């Protein structure tokens, strides 16, 4: 883990290492999150006429029917999305970690792919398949004379969001399940606990940190998400309201910023509630000998049922990608169940035009994800293991990034860094591509942080104490004991951050200063603005999904091999 | 196929041009263009331009119009952009108002003063029109056939009950082009009547999209049948092979899409060359490419256009019905947007319910006439149509003040906050739509 060099060095050099690490992280967050955001949202507290401090704008918010309706809609959609996402994630996570299941790694990788649905085209594909005049409804109407309103209003948002974000639960829950000490399960079995009772009373509670981490991410993410409701033209939710306010010409009233503040506060509240739910419980297990649950073989009939469930879920959650793939090969697809004809032309176009986008994306997303797991691990460690005063605030502030709409962050970066010239070239600092990496890292830090925190919660403190008692330095303990034990969670964090950063658009669109520095999401955006660009846009989307999907699969394989070599498995 | 041919033709034209351009001082360096135009358009111009002026590296930054304006405003202190290139003249007005553009008079000859009733160039020379576009109605023929819908011709057709739940538009607050469509109807029919038409059409909306392109996109894929769009969206969709049709209603405005040089442009010489290039015959011809399909502002270019290509300089019925008054439009710009959002976009469910009830009562009354029912129905229609502000109030700077960005000085009193005004309008619309629905239902009961 060379990625931990920064924290390690700083810990090694100065005796009160954690304090230095905390200060460095705090500085980073201050510079790249707090300052830019405050630059933008202070407007919410400003009287428009006098410029003085006021809370009147918040009173306006609560007096406004539209905003209150939006607020409840957002809340309802987020809660329902958690329910639906759990229904999708639980069977996949349980079946693949608990049983001998052929291709479990493949299934888990496929299960992560929904996260890398690039903006714009995901909703286009879903409309083509499930919309009022999509494949499913056209076929149903032709054959049975009925149609199902999958995509109408809030339903559509819940449907698309749960498919899009359920991997958060899947990844974190699987990581947790794998980390449960087999001895726990065996003891329970010895005491006569079996079947569903075993799952309900022992396995699921032990996996709680992962589930809660995932579920709270889903809730907050859906609460703050902008793209999906906008693309489905559902405007009476909070995030779209904020975005519509902030990004319209001429309408520069404070309400957009007020809504941003409300979003941030709600997300912090959700985190606080999830922290409260976990409080006073100890999820750490001491032994690491039998990592992961015992996998057992299923009876033939069970196996058939399990495969059926897994296949059904996979088809459902991969629907956007199936639609996207069809679209990328389609000549014309209009008001018909399937495209009129197929062609390879779009791939040719993309191949000629978009190589730069792909390399840029890989560079930006992997740097951002690396930064995220380094900072995420450090914050998790500081929060859970150190006694620094105010350490919780690092967690809260980093998580608040989740609630900052990408546009707000983008504008904040422009305001904060535009006037700062870069050394040597004199160009504005905000035009430097590394700024884009920082923006992506900040936006995706919460994912990595939650994953790392969940992982660390499952590592018992006594293991560290043991190592130190045997004479290991703090640094050596962290690098040789703690981090390896957390590796599953860190990887989960890396993968989520990487995959989602690779397709991030909203902050990117404000910060791209030249075409040669533009990432893939920007290219997609450009393609999807014209009728002729739809096919090539879909093809570029397929490229994105394949590349990030392969990356995910490879990292799974690597980590599994690493485990096996260390003899943690089987 | 025809695309390649056009490409070859453009390349040849450029080759000729470059030999003549060599006499002038060759501009060089990096030229940064912020644009809202699709890649089809920008890359075609980019290729043509780079062949004519190989020393200039063209950097195209794609942003939607609003984000582009924001970007220029935020970066003005250390500007790195040379040109702003977008459709909506209003966006240029905003930039001009913020003093972010610089004047330039193009050297190209033969461009008329007006297209339809709209002036092509800014009178102060801050920006120049390079292509004209008109608004109209686009539909998916497969969708229309499956739903047995007749083809619409005029805006008022869209208010007919048969189109209930089939029409889409983008929000005028989000799309400068839609704003102009709405404003055109308001100016063409007058404030009260215009809003009545707008709301009657709105009662048939299936959805209101956030991006302008969301409308042609939905029509292309068949998510909804009919869209109110700017012509090139429909024409280029057609050219890409989608089963869509398009018509210009009589009340439409042909409006130029524009280009302007940004104040303190780092590469002013190249920026001027680019403006002249896109107005020149070889630049204007790029507009005729099937994936672009915009109306050139240089009348000579139409000689090279396909036979059925709309020509606003010849076809006088196109876009000349309304004498579009830019000043009237400017004075109430934000108010019209906010009214549309509060009365229509965010009250769409209530408006649709009222419209549905009115349609049903109307059909029932046609079969079984009833005077009291008719009176009730007329009341219901008036309740939907009534506006919370008059045309005079809408143009009142006091009201507009609630929506503007900057206070001129701390002593400038703004009587009401935007959120307050909006809440008032929203409540007004909500109550009226509910009352209208009730009246229509009573009328329906009488006709049974």
TrEMBL record, chain A:
Q: Subcellular localization, per the record?
A: Cell inner membrane; Cell membrane
Q: Name one GO cellular component term.
A: plasma membrane
| GO biological-process terms attached to the record | transmembrane transport
Query: What residue ranges are annotated as transmembrane?
Result: 20-45, 75-95, 107-130, 158-177, 198-220, 257-278, 304-335, 362-384, 396-418, 424-442, 481-503, 538-559
What does the record list as coiled-coil region(s)? none
UniProt-listed CDD domains: TM_PBP2
Keywords, alphabetical:
Cell inner membrane, Cell membrane, Membrane, Plasmid, Transmembrane, Transmembrane helix, Transport
Q: How does it sit in the membrane?
A: Multi-pass membrane protein
**Which PANTHER family does its entry note?**
INNER MEMBRANE ABC TRANSPORTER PERMEASE PROTEIN YDCV (PTHR43357)
Q: Which family does it belong to?
A: Belongs to the binding-protein-dependent transport system permease family.
Name the chain's protein.
Answer: ABC transporter permease
Q: Which organism is it from?
A: Azospirillum brasilense
């Amino acid at each position: 883990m060379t990625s931990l060099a920064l924290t390690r060095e700083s810990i090694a050099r100065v005796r009160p290492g954690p304090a230095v690490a905390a200060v460095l992280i705090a500085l980073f967050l201050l510079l790249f999150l707090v300052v830019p955001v405050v630059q933008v949202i202070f407007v919410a507290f400003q009287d428009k006429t006098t410029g003085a401090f006021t809370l009147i704008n918040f009173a306006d918010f609560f007096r406004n029917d539209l905003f209150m309706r939006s607020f409840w809609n957002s809340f309802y959609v987020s809660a329902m999305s958690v329910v639906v996402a759990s229904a999708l994630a639980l069977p996949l996570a349980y079946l693949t970690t608990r049983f001998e299941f052929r291709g479990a790694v493949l299934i888990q990788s496929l299960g992560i792919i929904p996260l890398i649905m690039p903006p714009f085209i995901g909703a286009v594909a879903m409309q083509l398949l499930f919309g009022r005049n999509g494949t499913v409804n056209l076929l149903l109407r032709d054959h049975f004379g009925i149609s199902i309103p999958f995509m109408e209003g809030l339903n559509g948002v819940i449907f698309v969001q749960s498919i899009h974000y359920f991997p958060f639960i899947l990844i974190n829950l699987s990581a947790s399940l794998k980390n449960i000490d087999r001895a726990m399960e065996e003891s329970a079995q010895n005491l006569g606990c079996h079947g569903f009772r075993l799952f309900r009373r022992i396995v699921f509670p032990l996996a709680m940190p992962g589930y809660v981490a995932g579920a709270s991410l889903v809730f907050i993410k859906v609460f703050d998400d902008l793209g999906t409701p906008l693309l489905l033209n559902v405007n009476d939710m909070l995030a779209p309201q904020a975005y519509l306010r902030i990004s319209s010409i001429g309408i520069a009233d404070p309400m957009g910023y007020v809504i941003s503040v409300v979003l941030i506060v709600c997300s912090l509240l959700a985190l606080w509630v999830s922290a409260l739910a976990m409080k006073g419980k100890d999820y750490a297990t001491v032994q690491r000998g039998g990592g992961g649950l015992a996998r057992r073989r299923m009876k033939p009939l069970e196996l058939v049922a399990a495969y059926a469930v897994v296949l059904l879920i996979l088809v459902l959650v991969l629907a956007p990608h199936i639609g996207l793939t069809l679209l990328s090969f389609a000549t014309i697809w209009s008001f018909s169940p399937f495209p009129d004809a197929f062609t390879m032309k779009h791939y040719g176009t993309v191949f000629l035009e978009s190589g730069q986008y792909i390399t840029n994306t890989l560079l930006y997303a992997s740097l951002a994800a690396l930064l995220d797991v380094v900072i995420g691990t450090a914050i998790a460690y500081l929060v859970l293991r150190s006694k620094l005063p105010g350490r919780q605030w690092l967690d809260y502030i980093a998580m608040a990034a989740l609630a900052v709409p990408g546009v707000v962050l983008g504008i904040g970066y422009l305001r904060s860094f535009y006037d700062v010239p870069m050394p040597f070239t004199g160009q504005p600092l905000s035009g430097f591509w590394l700024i884009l990496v920082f923006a992506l890292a900040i936006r995706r830090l919460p994912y990595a942080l939650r994953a790392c925190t969940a992982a660390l919660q499952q590592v018992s403190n006594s293991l560290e104490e043991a190592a130190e008692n045997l004479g290991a330095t703090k640094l050596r303990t962290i690098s040789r004991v703690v981090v390896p034990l957390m590796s599953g969670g860190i990887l989960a964090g890396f993968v989520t951050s990487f995959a989602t950063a690779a397709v991030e658009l909203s902050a990117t669109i404000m910060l791209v200063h030249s075409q040669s520095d533009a990432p893939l999401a920007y290219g997609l955006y450009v393609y999807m603005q014209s009728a002729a660009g739809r096919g090539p846009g879909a093809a570029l989307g397929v490229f994105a999904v394949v590349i990030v999907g392969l990356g995910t699969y490879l990292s799974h394989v690597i980590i599994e091999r690493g485990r096996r070599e260390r003899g943690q498995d089987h | 196929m025809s695309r390649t041919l056009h490409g070859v033709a453009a390349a040849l034209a450029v080759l000729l041009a470059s030999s003549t351009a060599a006499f002038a001082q060759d501009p060089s360096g990096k030229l940064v263009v912020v644009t809202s135009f699709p890649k089809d358009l920008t890359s075609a111009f980019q290729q043509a331009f780079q062949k004519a002026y190989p020393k200039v590296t063209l950097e195209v930054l794609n942003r939607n119009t609003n984000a582009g304006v924001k970007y220029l405003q935020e970066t003005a202190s250390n500007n790195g952009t040379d040109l702003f290139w977008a459709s909506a003249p209003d966006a240029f007005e905003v930039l001009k108002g913020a003093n972010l553009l610089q004047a330039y008079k193009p050297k190209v000859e033969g461009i008329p003063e007006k297209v339809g009733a709209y002036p092509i160039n800014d009178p102060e020379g801050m920006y120049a029109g390079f292509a004209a576009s008109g608004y109209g109605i686009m539909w998916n023929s497969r969708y229309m056939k499956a739903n047995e819908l007749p083809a619409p011709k005029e805006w008022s057709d869209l208010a007919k009950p048969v189109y209930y739940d089939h029409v889409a538009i983008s929000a005028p607050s989000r799309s400068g082009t839609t704003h102009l469509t709405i404003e055109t109807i308001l100016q063409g029919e007058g404030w009260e009547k215009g809003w009545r038409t707008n709301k009657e059409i709105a009662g048939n909306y299936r959805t209101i999209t956030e991006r302008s392109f969301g409308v042609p996109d939905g029509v292309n894929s068949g998510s909804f049948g009919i869209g109110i769009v700017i012509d090139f969206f429909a024409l280029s969709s057609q050219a890409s092979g989608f089963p869509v049709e398009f018509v210009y209603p009589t009340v439409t405005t042909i409006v130029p899409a524009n280009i302007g040089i940004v104040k303190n442009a780092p590469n002013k010489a190249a920026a001027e060359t680019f403006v002249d290039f896109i107005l020149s015959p070889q630049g204007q011809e790029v507009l005729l490419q099937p994936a672009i399909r915009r109306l050139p502002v240089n009348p000579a270019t139409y000689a090279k256009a396909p036979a059925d290509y709309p020509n606003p300089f010849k076809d006088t019925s196109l876009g000349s019905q309304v004498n579009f008054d830019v000043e009237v439009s400017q004075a109430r710009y934000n108010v019209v947007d906010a009214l549309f959002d509060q009365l229509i976009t965010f009250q769409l469910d209530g408006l649709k319910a009222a419209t549905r009830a009115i349609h049903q009562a109307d059909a029932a009354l046609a079969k079984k006439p009833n005077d009291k029912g008719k009176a009730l129905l007329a009341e219901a229609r008036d309740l939907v149509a009534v506006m919370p502000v008059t045309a005079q109030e809408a143009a009142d700077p006091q009201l507009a003040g609630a929506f503007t960005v900057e206070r001129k000085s701390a002593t400038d009193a703004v009587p009401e906050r935007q959120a307050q005004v909006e809440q008032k309008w929203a409540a007004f619309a909500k109550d009226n739509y509910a009352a209208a629905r009730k009246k229509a239902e009573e009328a329906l009961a009488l006709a049974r």
